[in-house]
Amino acid sequence: MQLARELKNRGITIYFESQGLDTKDESSFVILSILAALAEEEIRTISNNVKWGIHKRYKEGKVHMSGRMCGYRIKNGKFTLVPNEVPVVQQIFNDYLVGLTIRQIKSKLDKAGISTPFSEKKRKKMEKEGKPFIEPKWQHTTIMSMLTNEKYTGDVILGKTFKVNVLSPRQINYGQRDKWEVQNNHPSIIDR
Predict the structure, then answer these.
(1) Nearest to 121 by CA among 73, 64, 80, 186
(2) Which of 86, 172, 184, 185 is the most buried (most CB within 10 A)?
(3) pLDDT at residue 23 above 90?
(4) For the sheet containing 72-75, what is the strand order?
(5) Which residues contact 141 (CB under 8 A, 6 or more apart)?
(6) Distance of CA 15 to the CA centre of its chain
(7) b/e burial code for range 67-84 (CB count within 10 A of at least 16 → b)
(8) How far apart are CA 174 and CA 157, in angstroms?
(9) Distance CA 23, CA 69 (A)
(10) pLDDT digits (tens, 9 = 90+) for 134-146
(11) Pairing mode of beta strands 180-182, 156-158
(12) Phi-psi region for residue 111, left (φ > 0), alpha (ψ -120 to 50) or beta?
């Protein structure tokens, strides 16, 4: 609306064909405001319905995730162990428990030539593109996120992030909203 007003002030009008509205008429701004409010309310209603469905699944302990993390492949909420990555995860946790810092763990992994979780995928992409592949180094943030991820114990915490509304960015849930813990959801790599 603000942009349409700015354009009108510069002598440029907009004709909305499907609504038959032209911003050269001041009355069209009233109608556009009403249409915008209705559209925004519809988006909120859809968003609330989706949130309700997600929270219902959470309360029932239904995990719906896809993707990958070091040690697992996740598809439709089912976690499958990746045998060659499990020892790497266990080594990271063991090293941390005996007192190694994140920096020392990173250095140890890089010196041992242990591939990062996404090395194979990147290698295949580079080969397909005919480009040389350089083994990526481990990142501090990757190791830290592994050490703080409950999924390695076989549990899942649902609702760790949320959106205040459909237009807001995702936020970390520090207790402002409910969270649900699903214990023994999948095979664990480390003990609790």
Answers:
(1) 73
(2) 185
(3) no
(4) 67-69, 72-75, 78-81
(5) none
(6) 39
(7) eebbbbebeeeebeebee
(8) 13
(9) 52
(10) 778 899 999 999 9
(11) antiparallel
(12) alpha
Tokens of 51: 């949130």
The alpha carbon torsion through 168, 173, 176, 178 (nearest 10 deg) reads 110
CA nearest neighbour of 64 among 182, 147, 145? 182
Amino acid at 110: D
**Degrees, nearest 5: CA angle 44-45-46:** 90
Over pLDDT 70: what percentage of the chain?
A: 99
**What are the start-end ranges of the H helices in 25-136?**
27-59, 86-97, 102-111, 119-128
- What is the 8-class DSSP label of residue 150? G
pTM more than 0.85: no
Which residues, in sequence order, are bridge partners of residue 75? 78
Terminal Cα-to-Cα distance of the chain (whole angstroms): 55
Closest CA to 62 of 188, 189, 185, 187: 185
Which residues, at least 6 apart from 110, have a Cβ–Cβ distance to it below 8 Å?
137, 138
